[in-house]
Design brief:
The complex is a heterodimer of chains A (262) and B (792).
Chain A (H helix, E strand, L loop, with lengths): L4 E3 L4 H8 L4 E4 L5 H6 L7 E4 L9 E4 L2 E5 L4 H7 L5 H8 L4 H6 L2 H7 L6 H8 L2 E4 L3 E3 H4 L14 E6 L4 E8 L6 E10 L2 E7 L7 E2 L1 H9 L24 H19 L1
Parallel strand pairs in A: 1-3, 2-3
Antiparallel strand pairs in A: 4-5, 5-8, 6-7, 6-8, 9-10, 10-11, 11-12
Helix pairs in contact in A: 3-4
Chain B lengths: L14 H6 L15 E7 L5 E6 L2 H4 L4 E6 L35 E2 L5 E7 L2 H13 L1 E5 L6 H6 L13 E7 L4 H10 L2 E9 L11 E7 L4 E6 L4 H13 L6 E4 L15 H13 L3 E4 L2 H7 L6 E9 L5 E13 L26 E10 L13 H19 L3 H8 L8 E2 L5 E2 L4 H12 L4 H10 L3 E10 L7 H6 L8 E7 L5 E5 L8 H13 L6 E4 L17 H28 L6 E4 L2 E4 L5 E3 H9 L14 E6 L8 E10 L6 E11 L6 H21 L29 E4 L19 H20 L14 H9 L1
Parallel strand pairs in B: 1-12, 10-11, 14-15, 20-21, 27-28
Antiparallel strand pairs in B: 1-5, 2-4, 2-6, 3-5, 7-15, 8-13, 9-10, 9-12, 13-14, 16-17, 18-26, 19-20, 19-25, 22-23, 23-24, 26-27
Helix pairs in contact in B: 9-18, 14-15, 15-16, 17-18
The chains are: A alpha+beta (262), B alpha+beta (792).
């Protein structure tokens, strides 16, 4: 790790100001950034911690659904979202291990947009709104491919607002080494339709499986998707699974998520 | 009632108090006055010619004290291979020099070609990065695939070795024609091609070394993560740097696991010593985890074709194997023994097989060196054998339990000389098979399978009846087989004046629990409390000699040396007692810690004898020396042969291909058991590692020689959720016939016996589930591989 300066502002305004500095980099839970810096693959001149900002912390019900502060650790979401959005709480409680869940945050996860991270599937399937220091971004517009988002220079997430579905579940199949999602499927049933968010599988990051959404909107049961196939052409291949295997997992896990959602 | 002390008691591990409360002292914990830091410059290409290394810029960077390159070590010795193996045609193996730092060529990603010493770690790392930038290495085509390596004479890991072959070994070559004939004549023949997956050892503590040199005395000290400090001293002093052994102390303090990878001497150890001498200051190095992945000696990596000839009712007539064994870029110390004498000699298993022939071609590639890893050669042999027998049972529609029973040696056949050069002294393989079957409730399987099916899972059961040769090793035998050193061990028992005892042992404990078990044996023999006995290990300045811990040898070899030294203490004690009690030595008995004149009530306690030994006033010095300290060396007459039967049950999720081990039953014969608690722990750990190999772990290099599984993001380690609650039994005991404790060793058993049981269970589940085209899946039997096999 190279030397760096460190700032820990206590307001969103101060954070925005600090991030305007040359070479500044936002730091939330640091579960990706710190290891990258330790390997000397990243060397920001200034780290601006976002975890000291009160209004970016915590979980509460409000306008538009469940508001989750961007700097809220997974462990807090796992505990505090249970009463309002159990599927989201369960997802948060299944990320990484206890150490990761105590440090890692939702804002850090979706700002990084790792193609195998859990949270993006929930944000997309819930049709959540990503709130930044500058604007509100619909989930469908936010995720733009591998490690790519709609965030602009100097922009950072302050909270995520989740509409609460009638039924929902997340089913993850672990990559055997990292325990990230080799494939993870979040299914959310709303009054006006079903949304299916898939992480880990696509070669362009998190995506919605729209054929399944249509079938499940008509008939919310695992059997509704039995006739569908997932095109392996859009799937990722790596040491732990081929595109065909991932395509299979998308379908199998979607069915299981529907069953789990009840 | 179970014993609460001495031999056979489940004494809790005393070392756990320091380990579990953070009070262990590991190499990296030691801060030394004036210390400096070494960082190695490692090759980022698998194969390359070093054109130039310009040290000028790096040398001028802040805090930099010294820079070393391969040029600095070109005139010192190489790190040698411990076993000389001859090829089938009688020619000796090819032994390229393994230098301290790569010189001329780099041969694997991670191969160190320079080192920087600086005042701080960060400074050393900055300068090492600069040095890497200022080095010109011409990349050459990488040699990764073993078959391609031996086929292509133009591309060479070592320029002087045209076909990248270390040796082509036949065991036993004279039997080859007879085995071929028996195979030809067999009514049924089974063939299986399989891969024994390469593993990264992943000890919890990475390798670390500190070199010290005292310019005032000329004394060196190496503190290092070693499983056998004496061997490291011998290698680094006599073979590499040319330091007299009396001027070098090697200390291996608390060591956080080794699994084989810390048996060997590595170049980093020589470097920190040479650098300490140059600077007159301590020089330290601790591997980063990524360095561990790239440079610790890896394990396994065999590609094998095994053929089995048998009768239609499953009587095995002949076994023949052809193996390509990857040795990596250089010969690590035991690397030539592992695929040969620790592998080929086990190919008869616990069975009466008249004809066995093993061929092993060991191949250089541009990958990390490969050497012994928990089990070392014996897991590879056991896996090949137990998988092909399982395949035979399926092809002939025979019951795998009955086929094993039909072929197992029977107790009346011992001692038994195998067709591959070993003499099994004793065993009762039927007993462990019966025990395992009872533990596993084999007859209740159908009911369990139905219950699994109701939950949407396929259930399968797999068996492995295994044997190993351990207690390494009888020196006369391994000498014949090519070992350049005898593999005896030694212990000194020092009775202090007040009757407590320090035992200096050559075995090194890095998780095994010697500090607990060894005192149990001494306490039992001397009739004194375990708590008054302390084990000293891991320091060449305190211990007479030793060959370290590996090959399930600590108790069987070093423990025996210790027991013999205790016998000498008792003999000396009798002399002292005779003098004190004014009796004849022959009339003194020793029991329950008391020296007594037979038939009288005249007695002295052990403590009184010890005190007298150190504060004598009137010893007849011509016949009785003061002091009570004895040393014994012990060289075993034979290997020991632990054996057992493992039964694994798995559930397979057809949708995802995920395998869950839902039950694992172990019936082992370790001979006499000194501490059941520790034996169970060893079996748990070994089986866990075996399940890891069977289901999770693999090491992938791409065609350019980059290690794709170079971190825990991609190298799948087994976790608690991947292993079941084990069902372990060690009540079938046929004591070893040639060591006085009757012990056989238990450290590697689990890792040897378990992988085939797991894979056999997976194949069984798939076959029962109707996927009859699946007859084999290579390890790791990962979800994607199982799914692909089902749908392939």
């Amino acid at each position: 790790m190279h030397n760096f300066d460190f700032a820990k502002p206590s307001t969103i305004a101060d954070a925005a100001k600090a991030l305007g500095a040359d070479g500044a980099q936002a730091l939330s839970g640091g579960q990706t950034l710190i290891p990258t810096m330790k390997q000397r693959l990243a060397a920001p001149g200034v780290l601006v911690s976002l975890t000291g900002i009160k209004e970016m912390q915590g979980v509460c019900m409000g306008d538009g659904g469940l508001h989750v502060g961007a700097a809220t650790p997974h462990a807090v979401v796992a505990k505090e979202a249970v009463a309002h959005y159990p599927a989201l709480a369960a997802l948060a409680g299944g990320i990484g291990d206890p150490a990761v869940r105590s440090r890692g945050t939702i804002g850090g996860s979706i700002a990084n947009n790792d193609p195998a991270a859990c949270y993006p599937s929930a944000v997309l399937a819930s049709g959540a709104t990503v709130v930044t220091n500058k604007r509100k971004i619909a989930a469908d517009d936010y995720f733009q491919g591998l490690f790519t988002t709609a965030l602009e220079e100097g922009e950072f997430i302050t909270e995520v607002v989740f509409p609460i579905p009638q039924k929902a579940a997340y089913v993850k199949f672990n990559q055997p080494a990292s325990r990230f999602a080799l494939t993870g499927v979040f299914v959310a049933k709303f009054a006006n339709g079903v949304r299916v968010g898939v992480t880990g599988a696509g070669n362009d990051g998190v995506f919605r499986w729209k054929e399944a959404e249509a079938a499940l909107s008509a008939n919310f049961s695992a059997s509704a998707i039995s006739g569908l196939t997932v095109d392996a052409g859009g799937m990722n291949t790596d040491l732990h699974g081929s595109a065909a295997y991932r395509a299979n997992l998308v379908k199998v896990l979607t069915g299981r998520a529907v069953t789990a959602a009840g | 009632m179970p014993k609460d002390h001495g031999i056979g008691a489940s004494t809790k591990r005393r070392e756990d108090i320091r380990f579990l409360t953070g009070r262990g002292v590991y190499t990296d914990d030691m801060a030394l006055h004036g210390q400096t830091f070494a960082v190695f410059v490692r090759s980022t290409v698998a194969h390359g010619r070093i054109k130039s290394i310009n040290t000028a810029k790096a040398a001028g960077m802040p805090g930099v004290l010294a820079i070393f390159t391969g040029e600095d070590f070109k005139d010192v010795g190489g790190n040698p291979a411990g076993w000389l193996i001859n090829s089938r045609d009688g020619t000796p193996m090819r032994e390229p020099k393994r230098p301290v730092l790569a010189h001329g060529k780099v041969r694997h990603v991670g191969d160190a070609y320079a080192a920087v010493i600086a005042e701080t770690y960060a400074q050393a790392r900055d300068a090492a990065e600069q040095l890497a930038e200022d080095s010109v290495i011409e990349e050459l085509p990488a040699i990764i695939d073993m078959k391609a390596a031996v086929a292509d004479a133009s591309n060479r890991v070592h320029d002087e070795i045209p076909d990248n072959l270390c040796f082509d070994w036949g065991w036993i070559e004279d039997n080859r024609a007879a085995v071929d004939a028996a195979m030809q004549a067999a009514p049924h023949k089974v063939t299986l091609e399989l891969v024994n997956n390469r593993l990264v050892p992943n000890a919890m503590e990475p390798r670390a070394s500190i070199g010290e040199y005292n310019p005032g005395t000329g004394d060196y000290k190496l503190t290092t993560t070693s499983q056998n400090p004496h061997l490291t001293r011998l290698l680094v002093a006599a073979f590499v740097l040319g330091i007299p052994e009396n001027k070098l102390t090697v200390v291996a303090p608390d060591v956080g696991g080794g699994f084989g990878s810390k048996i060997y001497h590595y170049g980093e150890e020589a470097l920190v010593l040479a650098a300490a001498k140059k600077l007159g200051r301590p020089v330290r190095w601790t591997a980063e985890r990524s360095e561990s992945f790239l440079t610790d000696a890896h394990g396994r990596d065999h590609v094998t074709k095994i053929e089995l000839g048998c009768t239609k009712d499953g009587q095995i007539l002949a076994i023949r194997t052809e193996t390509l064994a990857n040795v990596g870029a250089y010969l690590s110390n035991f690397s030539t023994a592992t695929p040969t004498f620790l592998h080929g000699t086990l190919m008869a298993g616990p069975y009466k097989v008249p004809h066995v022939y093993v061929n092993v071609k060991t191949v250089f590639t541009n990958t990390a060196p490969v050497d012994a890893y928990r089990g070392a050669g014996r897991p590879e042999a056991t896996f090949s054998l137990e998988r092909v027998i399982d395949k035979m049972c399926r092809e002939l529609n025979l019951d795998p339990f009955e086929v094993r029973r039909k072929n197992l040696l029977t107790p009346d056949q011992f001692p038994y000389t195998t067709p591959v050069g070993l003499v099994y002294d004793t065993g009762n393989y039927q007993a462990t098979l019966d025990k395992a079957m009872a533990m596993a409730d084999v007859s209740g399987f159908a009911k369990r399978a139905a219950e699994s099916k109701a939950r949407g899972k396929l259930r399968g059961m797999g068996l492995s009846t295994w044997i190993e040769a351990c207690g390494i090793a009888p020196s006369h035998l391994v000498g014949i087989l090519g070992s350049r050193v005898g593999l005896y061990d030694a212990a000194t028992v020092r009775v202090n004046a007040t009757g407590n005892i320090s035992v200096m042992v050559g075995a090194h404990s890095h998780g095994q629990g010697h500090e607990t078990v060894f005192p149990q044996i001494v306490a039992e023999k001397l009739g004194i409390p375990e708590s008054s006995i302390e084990i000293v290990h891991g320091d060449t300045s305190k211990i007479p000699f030793g060959m370290g811990s590996y090959g399930s040898r600590s108790l069987a070899v070093c423990g025996t040396a210790m027991a013999k030294a205790v016998d000498k203490i008792i003999a000396k004690g009798k002399k002292i007692a005779a003098h004190m009690l004014e009796a004849s030595e022959g009339d003194i008995t020793f029991e329950d810690g008391k020296f007594q004149v037979a038939g009288t009530d005249k007695a002295k306690t052990f403590g009184e004898i010890a005190f007298s030994a150190y504060v004598p006033h009137n010893y007849p010095l011509e016949t009785l020396e003061p002091g009570l300290e004895e040393t014994a060396f012990y060289d075993p007459a034979n290997f020991t042969y632990p054996a057992g039967a493992y039964i694994c049950e798995v559930e397979v999720d057809e949708g995802t291909g995920k395998v869950d081990v839902v039950a694992f039953h172990c019936a082992d014969d370790f001979g006499n058991v000194m501490n059941p608690l520790i034996v169970e722990g060893q079996v748990h750990g070994g089986v866990g590692q075996g399940i890891g190999q069977a289901l999770c772990e693999f090491t992938a290099y791409d065609e350019t020689g980059q290690l794709l599984t170079g971190s825990y993001m991609d190298y799948p380690m087994p976790r608690a959720e991947d292993v079941p609650f084990y069902n372990v039994d060690y009540s079938c005991q046929t004591p070893c016939t040639h060591n006085p404790l009757g012990v056989k060793g238990c450290g590697e058993a689990g890792a040897i016996g378990s992988p085939p049981a797991v894979v056999n269970a997976v194949i069984d589940a798939l076959q029962r589930g109707g996927h009859t085209h699946v007859t084999h899946i290579d390890m790791p039997v990962s979800p994607s591989r199982v799914w692909s096999a089902i749908n392939g």
